Amino acid sequence: MKFKQNLLLFFSLSCFFLSCKKDPKLIPNNNAPYYAGIPTVKVHNYINRLFIDLIGREALDTELAAELAVLRANTLSIGAREQLIVKLQTNDSYLVGDSSYKYAYYNRFYEITKARLLEGIPDSDILSEKGLIDFDILKDSIAGDSVSFQIRKKQSQKLVEVIKAQAYYRMDSIDIRGVYARMLDNAIYDKINMNTFNFVRASFSNLFFRYPSQSELIAAYDIVEYDAPRIILGKSAQNKGEYINVLLNSSE
């Protein structure tokens, strides 16, 4: 839980720019500076940046005033800022329009993840894709094609699992790796990244912000395309699911 609550902590805190210059030397008894003199507009910008990054909207005037008062009362300490971040990620008190900060945070994370991996496809389009697959399942059933029936049935279920990822993640039923596993292994991701070559390159880019080396590409291609046992990122894998699992559990 702590891992999830602090997922965006480093990024969010980095948005709060201070005017003092960092000293690269360690000085004994060098306590954190007193922040009371920082202009209110900077604190407002920091609060709004947190709201936008974590729940996808600016703070309301009432929220801005309340959070400003709390931060000022605590001299803008790191602890006070962390408490605001955790509040936006975990507070489940009802809010008009958002349901709760917690709901808004997990929905925001879900939409950002879809934007990166699935080109921001709406859930309605995912359901439409599922409907097309379900129609093919019906045709396979009528034709007695049991092999195609089972393949498409799994494809349909995987699209359902994509949509359920937001709620499951919010309820701690899956972790962040579970979210990404669902985003990587479905018919829509396969359509976006047609053929195994593109799938391997995209999966590395989406997860590691780099493309695979030549040796990684060859090994990954054999794993996904031919179900061949290979070593990838120091671990063994023999099919697409195992390949994704290795990537998601890599220290990289």
Shape: globular
Please indicate the percent range of residues in DSSP E strands (runs of 2 or more).
under 5%
The major pleated sheet works out as: 2 strands, antiparallel
**What is the CA–CA distance across the termini?**
21 Å
Helix and strand string, N-terminal first?
Answer: HHHHHHHHHHHHEEH
Q: Helicity, in percent?
A: 55-70%
Query: How many domains make up the 3D coordinates?
Result: 2
| Unreliable residue runs | 6-22
* Total E-strand runs: 2
Question: Which terms summarize this structure?
Answer:
single chain; 252 residues; mainly alpha; 2 domains; two-stranded antiparallel sheet; 13 helices; 2 strands
Description:
The protein contains 13 helices and 2 strands. A two-stranded antiparallel ribbon has the order 1-2. About 7% of the residues have low confidence. It has 252 residues and is mainly alpha-helical. It folds into 2 domains: 89 residues, no CATH class; 128 residues, no CATH class.
